[in-house]
Amino acid sequence: MLYSKLFGKTKKSSKQYDSVNATLLTKSGFIDQVMAGTYTYLPLGLKVLNKIEQIIREEMDTIGHEILMPALTPIVNWQQTGRFETVDVLMKTTPANIFAKAKNDTEYVLNPTHEEVVTPLAQKFILSYKDFPFALYQIQNKFRNEPRVKSGLLRGREFRMKDLYSFHTSEKDLKEYYEKSKEVYMRVFNRLGIGKDTVIVMASGGSFTDDFSHEFQTICDTGEDTVFFVKSKNIYYNKEVTPSKAPKVEYKDEKILPRKDVRGEGIIGVEELAEFLKIPVEKTTKTLLFETDDNRVIAAAVRGGYDINEDKLRKVVKCKALKLASEETVKKVTRAEVGYAGILDLPKSIEVYLDESVGNRTNFETGSNKTHYHSINVNFGKDLPLPKKFYDIKVAKEGDLYPETNEVYKVMRASEVGNIFPLYTKFTEAFNYKFIDRDGKEKPIYMGCYGIGPSRIMGIIVEKYHDDKGIVWPSTVAPFQVHLLGLDMKDESIKFKVYQVYKELIKKNIEVLFDDRENVTAGEKFSDADLIGIPVRLVVSKRTEEKIEYKKRNKNKPELLSLNELLTKLKIKS
Ligand code: ATP
Ligand code: MG
């Protein structure tokens, strides 16, 4: 391709975005921001995206069949699974809906994921045990009303996703396929050049199961996720499910003191409270009241400095859903204004769940359940009974220990490039999709879903592969393999030679971007080549005489080669 004809060239000055990938991809002419979280892929960018998707496609073809489902779906499919109410990022197409409702009494949504389309689709075609298992996938645009889009391609409102769905006649078969998909996924990430930094992480399996799902997280400082690593076991947890034990707090020679209720009007946050009471934050206690879906009111407490993990709490409490108690409930239960709830003297009807970080302390603070009051010097066995059991209901944080081995976690930032999820019968049940077994009976169908984010991956590759001059594409996803620069092209003989090299490369099926511009300085061409980041740079100029200068983007030293030597070298590499 001739660079002079390319739509979307490098920009001399370009906006600094909140991430390296957005800044570099915009400056070098790969993408253009339409609005926050929404991008156009320019010719160079689309080439990279297509290469990423082609690698994914080749690997997915070994375990599934490609289809293409629509982005737009009738609302009723989402109502059928109950997710119309629960998926907060669901894009409702309000103006189109007003029109569609008036005309056809229907409404639409833009799909953030496709279980609601693929399950009824499968149901139309495959019912007999003979046709199981099977898997369908697509690579397509997804829409999510993300509350905060950021980091360029890493979190968009419209983005690319490969989503695969597998269907099985037994849980065992689902599990086998699920394990196989992990291998296929790692092959994809290896081919994309991010394999060595990508780890399999245990994550929440959703509210319908105690099982984990698995995320493929690429270790990367720009990532939004926090991964906790247990070295001795070689396992990784997403922060949201990390089992956590708080480091012990010990204060030397502390004597048990008598409980005291201190007036502290309007002092509510633990930091502010610790300062006011002149005690360390670890001595404060954060107590929250929750209402469960089965109409219980429960109290949960963690040591100051921690937050309650609602997912962990829900599992301990054994309910399907819980939410923070209303102001009215808090007032009724604690007989105090909101902000003074504590674990002392609560009504007997309230179940109390204490995190293990609350124990192991002497002379600690807790809300007094009395408006404006906090109690200090509280001790188990004296001011309140030692509970039969402490739980792990907190959000893990750096410094925490893995409870089984007591080792301190290594904590890393990461970005989720893929996610696999055992769905069991959640969606097949919602659509009443069953198969007919050998014995003629209807039986449940087990499902799994498997996502990869090609556009996010494109961003992550740039985050991982760049230097102060620009992008350094891995050759498997580079828009071109070779960037040919013609310098001194006003000299007819050089111009002739560089075009000859260009034609020869094309003849040999080598993907080449030829910077054929005649009114641009050598310096500009070199810096554009570094910015765009194609793996091999070739130069034909007065200085190279009969030869061609060859330099890899990630190496400093150029070599002078004859055309034949060059072709052999590129062939070997490709
Ligand atoms: P996250 O936790 O990052 O919001 P998710 O778990 O909601 O992601 P999935 O539904 O598992 O995402 O989607 C499959 C893949 O799609 C993710 O692993 C990720 O690579 C990609 N992805 C998800 N949301 C976005 C987004 N807003 N922008 C770009 N890529 C995304
Ligand atoms: Mg996910």
Automatic annotation (TrEMBL):
<dbReference type="InterPro" id="IPR004500">
    <property type="entry name" value="Pro-tRNA-synth_IIa_bac-type"/>
</dbReference>
<dbReference type="GO" id="GO:0005524">
    <property type="term" value="F:ATP binding"/>
</dbReference>
<keyword id="KW-0547">Nucleotide-binding</keyword>
<dbReference type="InterPro" id="IPR044140">
    <property type="entry name" value="ProRS_anticodon_short"/>
</dbReference>
<dbReference type="InterPro" id="IPR007214">
    <property type="entry name" value="YbaK/aa-tRNA-synth-assoc-dom"/>
</dbReference>
<dbReference type="Pfam" id="PF04073">
    <property type="entry name" value="tRNA_edit"/>
</dbReference>
<dbReference type="InterPro" id="IPR006195">
    <property type="entry name" value="aa-tRNA-synth_II"/>
</dbReference>
<protein>
    <recommendedName>
        <fullName>Proline--tRNA ligase</fullName>
        <ecNumber>6.1.1.15</ecNumber>
    </recommendedName>
</protein>
<keyword id="KW-0436">Ligase</keyword>
<dbReference type="GO" id="GO:0004827">
    <property type="term" value="F:proline-tRNA ligase activity"/>
</dbReference>
<dbReference type="InterPro" id="IPR002314">
    <property type="entry name" value="aa-tRNA-synt_IIb"/>
</dbReference>
<dbReference type="Pfam" id="PF00587">
    <property type="entry name" value="tRNA-synt_2b"/>
</dbReference>
<feature type="domain" description="Aminoacyl-transfer RNA synthetases class-II family profile">
    <location>
        <begin position="32"/>
        <end position="474"/>
    </location>
</feature>
<dbReference type="InterPro" id="IPR036754">
    <property type="entry name" value="YbaK/aa-tRNA-synt-asso_dom_sf"/>
</dbReference>
<dbReference type="InterPro" id="IPR050062">
    <property type="entry name" value="Pro-tRNA_synthetase"/>
</dbReference>
<dbReference type="InterPro" id="IPR045864">
    <property type="entry name" value="aa-tRNA-synth_II/BPL/LPL"/>
</dbReference>
<keyword id="KW-0067">ATP-binding</keyword>
<dbReference type="GO" id="GO:0006433">
    <property type="term" value="P:prolyl-tRNA aminoacylation"/>
</dbReference>
<comment type="subunit">
    <text>Homodimer.</text>
</comment>
<keyword id="KW-0648">Protein biosynthesis</keyword>
<keyword id="KW-0030">Aminoacyl-tRNA synthetase</keyword>
<dbReference type="InterPro" id="IPR004154">
    <property type="entry name" value="Anticodon-bd"/>
</dbReference>
<dbReference type="Pfam" id="PF03129">
    <property type="entry name" value="HGTP_anticodon"/>
</dbReference>
<dbReference type="InterPro" id="IPR002316">
    <property type="entry name" value="Pro-tRNA-ligase_IIa"/>
</dbReference>
<dbReference type="GO" id="GO:0002161">
    <property type="term" value="F:aminoacyl-tRNA deacylase activity"/>
</dbReference>
<dbReference type="GO" id="GO:0005829">
    <property type="term" value="C:cytosol"/>
</dbReference>
<keyword id="KW-0963">Cytoplasm</keyword>
<dbReference type="InterPro" id="IPR036621">
    <property type="entry name" value="Anticodon-bd_dom_sf"/>
</dbReference>
